[in-house]
Design a protein that fits this description.
single chain; 337 residues; alpha/beta; Rossmann fold; Beta-Lactamase; 6-stranded antiparallel beta sheet; 52% helix
């Protein structure tokens, strides 16, 4: 039922009956109470109408040719789009076996012919009100679950930032801080591997000597690896180095297959998503943090901001170490004097 209909009608009802006189009678009864009424003369048309625009309620005749009401109900309940629509069965038959079968197939109520005006309206009103209440509860539960998920994610991000910041502050030097940061990002945020790229002394190329692969054996993680170099205008690390801005690649296999060069093990990992983050000090890129994971995903601004925060802590760490070194030099000068 669309929003316009919901605002002008107490409910949208689909009546399914092969007898035109029954369609006319039920439609007249329901329209007098303001219900939006649609009609189907057979099961196939009813299923199509329910799929195109699911109603709030279906009044379904049992005895129809080709496809009876029981079969129609089976199809309705087997579809994710229509399984939650309440179905009230209609029949001139009033035997107990028919009622049991109707309820077993998912029907919520049962109306017998000839119709009684007050009974029809009471049962219809009750089922629509119940259906809407269930939808409201489902929507509330969905919102609550989203809030819980969001709160859990926020707590995980805070825990990650606190743990990483603490580890960075205890690192003896910048190289060690980069190494522990890369490890924590992969383990705590769920990236499969990553590298740290740094400009060479001449500032003409990027070189990588720090890397981490989450699934590798511990000894492989600490084993020294060969240094790779990126020239200008080549690959994700250089683009981040040049722009001084984060970059997210949704599918590195298509866009930037050359971005990850770390050994045969890395090239066989079928990496999909890539993220590059610059580590800046006084508007100068000291290093580029590059992360990869096997699952393909669109850019997550919140995640980029979290990793950017870690990069800012690394920048502060470098500046603090620089000040500490200058203080040591100054102290030695004072002692010499």
């Amino acid at each position: 039922m669309n929003e316009l209909t919901a605002s002008t009608s107490p409910g949208d009802i689909l009546i399914v009956d092969d007898a035109p006189e029954n369609l006319r009678l039920l439609s007249a009864i329901l329209k007098t109470q303001g219900y939006q009424v649609r009609q189907s003369i057979n099961g196939q048309l009813a299923l199509r109408a329910a799929q195109l625009n699911p109603p709030d309620l279906i009044l379904l005749d049992i005895s129809m040719p080709q496809m009876d009401g029981y079969e129609v109900c089976k199809h309705l309940k087997s579809s994710e789009k229509t399984r939650h629509i309440p179905v009230i069965f209609i029949s001139a038959l009033d035997r107990e076996v028919n009622k049991v079968k109707a309820f077993e197939l998912g029907g919520v109520d049962y109306i017998t012919k000839p119709f009684h005006l007050k009974e029809v309206l009471m049962r219809v009103q009750h089922q629509i009100a119940l259906h809407r209440l269930q939808n409201q509860l489902q929507a509330q539960n969905t919102r609550l679950q989203q809030e819980i998920t969001e709160r859990q994610r926020a707590e995980e991000e805070i825990r990650f930032l606190l743990t990483t910041t603490k580890a960075i502050s205890k690192s003896p030097d910048f190289h060690a801080a980069l190494k522990i940061t890369l490890r924590y990002i992969c383990l705590m945020i769920g990236w499969d591997c990553g590298e740290i790229w740094s400009p060479n002394s001449e500032g003409t190329k990027l070189e990588s000597s720090i890397w981490f692969v989450r699934e590798a054996k511990q000894e492989a993680l600490t084993h020294p690896s060969e240094t790779f170099k990126f020239a200008h205008n080549f690959g994700l690390p250089v683009r981040v180095w040049s722009s001084k801005q984060p970059e997210w690649i949704e599918n590195v296999l298509v866009q930037d297959i050359s971005a990850f060069l770390r050994s045969q093990m890395g090239s066989n990992m079928e990496l999909k998503t890539g993220l590059g983050i610059p580590i800046l000090v006084n508007d100068r890129v000291l290093a580029v943090l590059v992360l990869f994971k096997k699952t393909r995903s669109q850019a997550e601004q919140r995640l980029i901001e979290v990793v950017n925060t870690v990069a800012a802590h690394l920048s502060e760490f470098i500046q603090r170490k620089k000040i500490e070194a200058e203080l040591v030099v100054a102290y030695k000068e004072l002692k010499r004097l």
